[in-house]
Give the backbone structure.
Amino acid sequence: MKHILAIFVVAVFALSVFSVSIFAEGNNAPDGSGNQDPGAQPELYDDTGNSPDPELVSTPINTENQGDDTRLRVCADFLRKNRLSSTPLITCQKMFRNEIRCQEHLEGLGVVDAGAKCGRLFQEGAQIIKERAYVAQKVTQAVAEWRLKKADGLIEKNPSAETVLQALSEEKAKVFMHMTRAQQAEMVRMGKDRVIQEMEKYKLQKTPVQNLYQKRTIASEKLQKAHQNYEHAKGEFIKVNNAYNENRKLFLDVKTQLQKCEGVDSEECTQLMQRAHERAQEFTINAAQMAIRHLEKVKYKAESSEGMEEETAGGILNELNTAINDLEGVVAEVESAQTKEEIQTAAQKISQIWSRIRHREKVHSAELLNAGIWGITKRSETLEERIDAKLAKMSEEGLDVSELQTRLDEYSVKVVSAKEKYEQAKEILQQANGMRGDELTEEEKEEAIGLVEQAKDLIRQAHEELKDAHDFIKDIIKEIGGLGEDVTDVESETEEGLDEGEVYEVVESEE
């Protein structure tokens, strides 16, 4: 099914896509209910309810001809891809012989602008799908037409791309068709022999649209609560930090005054001793609370991170919760402390807990930042696809989109570069994450922190790449509008093998 996908940019690449049907109000059901007709005939029957002519069923389409056979194939592809017929070839043959009136039939299925679509199918059909010698016919039938046009453009710019595509199996050619512009260009640069080996690393994966930008599903209520808790912890950290600085200053002032009490036994000195004890308690408690609030900020970010696997997030939360519980236990000890020595012992425990967790929270904070980069790159890739589909449609209408195609190439390079930096940062953070345990030396902890800084530098670079890409896409959207086109009106086809609400994404093979 085709959809109108509204695309809009929120902040720096907080991009979202929503869809409504371009062919029917609802889904494929003629009544617009979105439900399949419970009385629908099985495949033994055609769409008129009649038993198909066996001769017609067995008649192959001769794809060598440029006339009627091509138009039939175009029509059948159209009905099949948009799930408008369980027997698309038979239906098209009957339309072609006027046994079924095309416009009335499509209108009955809820297709918008049915007359124009019938005109394209039967009057211009030979131009809708052209023979592409560089890829198997099964591939051209399985993927969206705009993907094929993107490959046409790649070959036009770099003729060696045709040789590369011809060398790929049907399965890997489909994978190639779903890669971004920059990824395809990089594959072509590798050459025929190397690209066959390289493409073995990738496969197509069906993904529900709602899961495309998340590695785990978090209930909306839990997400909202985590965001609220984060804001609360952030505010509490500021308050506790101010209290810590104030109480520490007061303690130091009292400590200075106590120097005059050395060897003196007086009521005033006894009061000063009591005030010093209270101030020491307060700022020691504040120190523990600062650490707790800081760890809570990281904790609530982990709870709300949809770009992080459940197992990874769970490990972070367990580690942070352990440290938070230990610190809260020490706070209780300080509150009940009766002597200076007891406060000093508690303060040492706080220092030890913080020494144990300090490098770990830095690793986890960087992991969360990098997970955010992953989410932005995924949305950026989706936006590239939508713009590609739009440019293909504009080209069909006779508009010159060559400059826009070049801009989109540049955009794609920026996004791929950001994605590569995300992967590099991820590898470094995995190395840093492996450095854990009570037996770590201070030097090893500092080494882990150094790795975190390397990763954070890559994350900053990735963020800059995405900001540059954002500028490119703003210009592209502006220029599309200048040509009288609406970038929010983008057609996307459901491809072969996908159910409603699914898309293909290119992922690394597990082998």
Summary: Residues 220-358 form one domain. The chain is about 65% helix and 5% strand. The CA atoms of residues 305 and 430 lie 17 Å apart. Residues 1-67, 124-129 have pLDDT under 50 and may be disordered.
